[in-house]
Amino acid sequence: MLGLSKKDAGLLLIVALLCLFAPFLLNPFPEGSAMAQFNGGYPDLMQRLVIFGIFAIGFNILFGLTGYLSFGHAAFLGVGSYAAIWMMKLLTMNIIPAIMISVLVAGLFSLLVGWISLRRSGIYFSILTLAFAQMSYALAYSVLTPITGGETGLQPKYTDPRILDGALPAGQSPRANLFGLDMKATTQLEVGDWVFTFNAGYYIAAAVMLIAFYLSMRIFRSPLGMMLRAVKSNQQRMNYTGLNSKPYTLAAFVISGMYAGLAGGLLVAMDTQVGAERMFWTASGEVVLMTILGGAGTLIGPILGAGFIKYMENIISKINESVLEQWFAFMPDWMGDFMVAIVYPFVGKGWHLTLGLLFMLVVIFLPGGLVEGGQRIGKLFRRKKSEPDTPDGKTTPAE
Amino acid sequence: MDAILLQILNGLDKGSAYALIALGLTLIFGTLGVVNFAHGALFMIGSFCAVTFSKFLTLSHTVIDDTRKDFLGNPLKVDVPYIHEIVGQSAGDWMIDWAVPLSILFTIPVMVALGFIMERGLIKHFYKRPHADQILVTFGLAIVLQEVIKYFYGANPIPTPAPEVFAGSFDFGAALGFDPNTIIYPYWRLVYFGFAALIIGAVFAFLQFTTFGMVVRAGMADRETVGLLGINIDKRFTIMFGIAAAVAGLAGVMYAPINSPNYHMGMDFLVLSFVVVVVGGMGSLPGAVLAGFLLGILESFASMSAVLELIPGINQIIIYLVAIIILLTRPRGLMGRKGVMED
Predict the structure, then answer these.
(1) pLDDT tens profile A213-259
(2) Which of these, A192, A265, A370, B244, could form a disulfide with B27 (CB 3.0-4.6 Å)?
(3) Beta strands B169-171 and B60-69, pairing class
(4) Does A124 contact B312 at a Cβ distance shorter than 8 Å?
(5) A135, A234, A287: which to substitute to probe chain B, counting the most B Cβ within 10 Å?
(6) What pTM, to 2 d.p., does this model score?
(7) CB contact under 8 A, B331 and A132
(8) How many independent structural domains does chain B possess?
């Protein structure tokens, strides 16, 4: 199907189903119940899950396949965002041209950065990309303020030209749309105590992510993907056999830059504003975390990692002291207080602490990320099942 | 002329901080071969050692002073630091005033211990792993350390003043024969520069003139052979990690009066220090120091208004720009050795 092997097509189908039913899957608890705060099925979070999924998929094409660790990928996301918002301000609030231009501009920018940075490898490459990203951030904040809006950032205004759109009725603010379909349009479905939200923007972002995921699958299985893996395993040997690896790594860099631009454009399409903090190096670090946490070099890993981090970020940040007290209310007072005191530093504002610890644990014990963890657990069960089978010999006798 | 001199002086204090952090980074990289992204966090913890120490000194209890009355005529309540009762009034006040320099004594053991724990507990297990893994795990550690500090000390910068004596500024202009008040420079920054030079000199002397330093240098050149000679090189490298942590901590302690400690200062400095290390040349100690001062001074030159008029925004990006140019023209940095980190 679609040029994919059976296994890959199955994976794509699973991801598609997960995306389709995300509003149900992320809202497992009835409204108003004590667990309702773990519901992640609101549009803003769901959009972020898939958009950062795209970002991480793109990063994985570079880092997972070639092993080049870029610490400046947020710059491409930021550049894409700025391009998209300018398209919205000048041309039309339709998201199609905005997203196209964001991919294009991010692609061109990553071509420039990649062409320079890829002259070096290892930590030098990381520092070069970091330097470019920090430069973009610093410039966006200071000198380029007429283009980037500086600290206030950019958002569409009533007075923008928007050549293709007709004049807005007075008092109405411009909203991102897809041929008239408002990105913020939502319908709610109530089943008993449960409330499920379906959001137009989310489904568009999810569809884009599926396309992006499909493309990354094709890249992984293509000759280009093989070349990139060869770069990771032994670039020197590859060069000695007479292959110039630069065009391949540059292609990977530009592709991942375009993915980042796509994510940036979509971020603008969903929430029409941009600020320079999107390009700060911690944002670049975050996408590295997502990819590693999910499993670098695997197909599904980055999506899992991005989903996991964004979900936990939103959910854990919301937990405060009174919520904790409710949880531990069943315990005797002294024990409850003790538990609250222990857990409190890790939730709410302490989310970054949890993230840092989690990240360290993953790098130390599970370098392959969640995917490797899943495989290990799977192997554990399979071994138990298959062990009794082995003695009665499926081995073929030697002729 | 005087403007140029002023910019050089301005660059010195930031350059000193860069040089000290880069020196520690290079020590760790040269000995253990580990890229330590948590080094900025060590610098930050050093700064917070100064904060903690001055908090300790000013711990106080309230006593009722019968000899004085407040405006209602009741006996006045006075906060008396415990230190007054331990060492006496005047000595106590002196110690509180000199809290930052005194906290060096407190910082060194704390940082060395922290360095030991980090190396033995975490980094030891990462020698054989790829550099990317080392970067990532120390990056995670940096986040954790930063958040722990934030939890205990809050998110706001904590002003930590230098001793009264150094509060003023030194008028270089008058001393060197220019017009007075053209080149004025705060005393504490001079002290910081002197202190940094002292530490850098001490580290180099330690490596150059002691037997221990000789063994460490031999280990940096060829770890395996030194091990085969029956020397426990791992133990010495652990000690070097402790020393590198202490250098970062000391850089942080003395920087506290210049820049009020906040929990993310480590990360801000770390990114720049890495650029410094790469510009100086991975694994080269003199290169790290040279590049630290050079980039610090360049940065302050770039923020001159005359330069800013010519190329707006250059002060924000000069360091990165220089790093890119250096890396493309001299791949090993200013003083890098062949064969370091070239895989």
Answers:
(1) 999 999 999 999 999 999 988 888 888 998 888 999 999 999 999 99
(2) B244
(3) unpaired
(4) no
(5) A135
(6) 0.85
(7) no
(8) 1
